[in-house]
Amino acid sequence: MTKVDIISGFLGAGKTTFIKELIEKVFAGEKLVLIENEFGEIGIDGGFLQDAGIEITEMNSGCICCTLVGDFSVALKKVLDEYHPDHVIIEPSGVGKLSDVAAAIENVKEDADIEIEGRITVVDGKKAKMYLDNFGEFFENQVEHASTIVISRTQNMTDEKIEACVHLLREKNDKATIISTPWDQLSGDAIRHALEHGAEIEGLFEHHHDHDEECTCGHHHEHHHDHDEECGCGHHHHDHDEECGCGHHHHDHDEECGCGHHHHDHDEECGCGHHHHDHDEECSCGCGHHHDHHHHHADEVFTSWGKETAHKYTEEELDYLLKALSETDAYGTILRSKGIIQMADGNWKQFDLVPQEYEVRDGKADYAGRMVVIGTDLKEDELAKLFHVQ
Ligand SMILES: Nc1nc2c(ncn2[C@@H]2O[C@H](COP(=O)(O)OP(=O)(O)OP(=O)(O)O)[C@@H](O)[C@H]2O)c(=O)[nH]1
Fold this sequence. Notes:
Keywords: Chaperone, Hydrolase, Nucleotide-binding
Mean pLDDT: 74
Domain CobW C-terminal: 304-387
Strand order of the largest sheet: 3-2-4-1-5-6-7
Protein name: GTP-binding protein
Bound molecules: guanosine-5'-triphosphate
Domain CobW/HypB/UreG nucleotide-binding: 4-179
Order of helices and strands: EHEHEHEHEHEHEHHEEHEEEEH
């Protein structure tokens, strides 16, 4: 039996940092495989885990989401056959929906001896409200489908702020264990207990209905449900045996689409008896597409820009670009950036950036400098100038 833990969380939430804690405190000595799915084309993480002798499979071909569920299932099966690990840790991209990833694992469960132990979502305590308001479609799904929610950065928050954050998360998920203790104070046992509790309540997420049936809404779902239950794909389905014929996705009508606006039903009927929202106007979510439905794929909303470079940066250049990206919107709405670059003195530095915060560490020489920037409305030409990669 291989136990599978999913460590999800929005861009820069602290997934990789929490995985380090898990590996050191909880999974030490176990045969472990990590499957990482980065949204950016250029993988930056990974080095430290490889050094620790942990097997890493990167899926950089795109975000695990409903369109990539099949590819992901194949990658997971391959890892199980090849390594027979005790544990598989899956780190989906920050903009992946936890329900999509869980559905992919459920696929594999039918012919492999695995059990989902924890659906863990790491939440940046300081940004939870802002991300819920602005990118609710992605962030909310990660919170709602978690069995354990781990809040990061609580060591830098007041008790009131921590409480407000827990309250906000509780409104979206009243079942999950919420960990708000700073991680360095958490023992391995406490983390293990939270994971095991996750496994206990995992049963609540599982449904046993007809598998492999084609839903008449035009999508292939792994599970079908009675009544108005959520199937884990993050969408709300109505009677599955009913053909509505309108060819649209149907969702909870009161759901936010992630563009930060609340859309209401328009009075149009497509004939299936449900109200659909059908705007012809452009949504201001930044994806630049016309929407006639509520569902966004991550790559419609978020863009990733990445480059390799031989440029050697001075301290001033690095300082300037990190401040520009974290404190201004001159280059678009920057949600995440990370990179490994060579400095003018020959040393290598690794940087990690989220809105309002960045961190620079000494890095190891690599084959080339490289960086990735993820956000909305990215100004790519300006970014290229900022990083001296033109
Ligand atoms: N102070 C503090 N910093 C943290 C904490 N968790 C994460 N960070 C920092 O936040 C940045 C992002 O952390 P990661 O662990 O790389 O986040 P991630 O969720 O893996 O990010 P993605 O690569 O976007 O998936 C890094 O600079 C971390 O050092 C925390 O609890 N406290």
